[in-house]
Backbone:
């Protein structure tokens, strides 16, 4: 798959994840339940592209949850999202960081995990499967900025 095709796929999946199902009504359960179910599907999915699609939906779910009632997201769910930062899949790490960022200050408990993930991401090769302009390090820096209000400059 070419870099152009991957970039196009990223753009399509971002719009699908952020504006698709995630903005539907909370179907009787809590946002925690829906996010936890998505995390379980991500962990169980063997196909990288399907896992990518599932992970790309997390930021939209997190954003909708944080705007409707941030207190409905418990610390355990935030910790489960943060655990995805340790995935072997770079795309999953990227989307998990963005999901935590969408929770804003509610995800303060995840800052140490995000800082560790940022250090690890900056040590990896700058080219990731989601492209250099959408690296895990960039997504993690953005999440930390949204949660803490501080800028995290790249370590070059």
Residues:
């Amino acid at each position: 798959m070419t870099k152009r095709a991957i970039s196009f796929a990223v753009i399509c999946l971002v719009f699908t994840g952020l504006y698709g199902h995630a903005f539907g009504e909370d179907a009787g359960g809590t946002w925690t339940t829906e996010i936890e179910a998505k995390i379980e599907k991500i962990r169980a999915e063997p196909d990288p592209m399907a896992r990518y699609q599932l992970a790309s939906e997390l930021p939209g779910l997190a954003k909708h949850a944080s705007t409707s009632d941030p207190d409905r997201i418990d610390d355990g769910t935030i910790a489960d999202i943060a655990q995805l930062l340790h995935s072997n899949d770079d795309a999953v790490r990227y989307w998990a960081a963005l999901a935590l960022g969408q929770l804003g200050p509610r995800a303060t408990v995840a800052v140490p995990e995000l800082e560790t993930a940022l250090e690890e991401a900056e040590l990896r090769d700058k080219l990731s499967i989601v492209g250099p302009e959408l690296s895990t390090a960039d997504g993690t820096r953005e999440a930390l900025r949204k949660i803490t209000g501080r800028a995290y400059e790249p370590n070059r």
